[in-house]
Each structure stands twice: as C-alpha cells, then as structure tokens.
Q: What sequence folds into this?
C-alpha cells in the first residue's frame, strides 16, 4: 500500500496484465474503501491498514463501477454498506449471470451487490475533508469518481486510465467526452486512475484526445470502405509516439478500434 498523502492510500494489483488501483481514505469519522479489486484476497493489505489506522471509524465501501476487476473483492466486507451509482446493481447482476461481457467466474465467496445507490452525486461531510461521489458515465453507465475536496485527490475508477481508456458503454462516446470536460472543472492536483500510475490533470486531456482520435480515425477508414477485420489504427497515430504498448494494451487498443467501428 502506497500512502499518497496522510491517510490516503493507493493499493495496486495486477489483474490479468492490467495494473489496477484501489484506494483507502481515512477521515475523522469514516474509512472509505474505493473498489475491492479482483477477489477478496486482494483486500488483505487494505484490511490490515483498516485495522491499524481506522479503528472506530464507520466503513464505507465504494464500487466505482460494476466491472469484475473493481468489485469481485466485495466479499472481503461481509457486513456494512457498499455504495455505488444507481445502475451498478443491475449491471453487476448481469455480469454475474454472464449476460454481458467477458468477465471471469466470480470468486467462491460470492460478490455482494451494492446496498446504497445514488443518481448524480452524493457527498460525505467530515471534519477537514469532504468526500464527493460523482456519477461520470462514459466508460460504463454506472461509472463514478471519488473526489477529496480537502486533499484535492481524484480517484477516477475507469473514467480515466493510462495509457488510454477502454470502451465499454455502447454509444457512450459523447457522454464520456462531456464527463471529461466536467472533470476538468475539479481543482484536482492528483489523479489515481483505475488503471495506470498516479498522474496529474493532463491525463484528462490525454484520454479525451485518444477517444476522439480513435473514433475519427475509424470513421474515416469506414468511409473509405475498410472492413472491420482489416482495421489497422496504429497506436502511435492516436497516442503519440512516446507511448510504448505491451501486448495486453495492444490487444486492448485493437478492441477499442473494433468497438468504435460498430458505432460510427
Ligand atoms: Zn477496470
């Protein structure tokens, strides 16, 4: 566990080749767990810090969205509330019943579904810190970010990712770009994306540029008559030449390109 600032922790795991981040924030009267990652065992370091540093606090577990690599550790918290955006329980149930996507089998402990939901935003007011949960659709219908007003730290879930975001909400492009423009209004100094290293605010622009460039490049190719299986949008074209992609991310980029093809 990395202590980003006092009482603000980041916990990273490798989820099938993707560096995946969760968070733990201890305020005066509460302890916020931001995502439970891919299985209950991933939460062991978080539980250790909770025991050591957050005794007596009320625990609030947050699911930034329903995807398996962010919620399959929910079973590590058998009691207490799990907070999410309003669409999360339905999307999570569908994922658990394999009605959507390509998620792995859930852990034997099961996956608790959220017990408290909200629509657009909710805030926890505490001495010295206000913790905002803000709906940020685009990556998924139920995506949310967690913003710490006092510390100016933004936990972005998969609303922001490095080196690029993954497309998962059908016809979500315009929604996502709107979301990113709203996020830029937040006076955040530090961003913790759901995947990738801790960064500054330039990540928001970088993600918007990638999303826009992929859709524009794919639309142009489709107009020229290029078939879906012939698509070849080189990462350098949409990311700049200084970003090196490993095999996992090259594959994720290819999936984004094909995803966009079906929408343009
Ligand atoms: Zn993710």
A:
């Amino acid at each position: 566990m990395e202590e980003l600032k006092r009482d603000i922790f980041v916990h990273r795991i490798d989820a099938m080749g993707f560096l995946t981040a969760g968070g733990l924030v201890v305020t005066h009267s509460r302890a916020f767990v931001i995502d439970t990652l891919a299985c209950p065992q991933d939460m062991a370091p978080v539980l250790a810090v909770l025991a050591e540093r957050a005794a007596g606090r009320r625990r609030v577990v947050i699911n930034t969205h329903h995807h398996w690599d962010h919620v399959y550790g929910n079973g590590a918290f058998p009691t207490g509330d799990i907070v999410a955006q309003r669409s999360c329980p339905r999307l999570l149930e569908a994922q658990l019943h394999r009605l959507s996507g390509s998620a792995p089998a859930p852990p034997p402990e099961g996956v608790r579904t959220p017990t408290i939901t909200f629509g657009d935003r909710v805030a926890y007011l505490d001495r010295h810190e206000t913790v905002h949960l803000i709906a940020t659709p685009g990556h998924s219908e139920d995506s949310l970010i967690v913003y710490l007003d006092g510390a100016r730290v933004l936990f972005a879930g998969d609303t922001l990712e490095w080196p690029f975001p993954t497309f998962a909400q059908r016809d979500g492009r315009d929604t996502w770009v709107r979301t990113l423009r709203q996020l830029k209004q937040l006076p955040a100094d530090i961003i913790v994306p759901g995947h990738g290293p801790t960064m500054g605010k330039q990540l928001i622009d970088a993600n918007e540029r990638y999303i826009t460039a992929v859709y524009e490049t794919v639309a142009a190719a489709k107009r020229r008559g290029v078939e879906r299986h012939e698509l070849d949008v080189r990462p350098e074209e949409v990311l700049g030449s200084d970003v090196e992609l490993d095999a996992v991310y090259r594959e994720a980029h290819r999936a984004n390109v094909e995803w966009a093809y079906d929408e343009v």
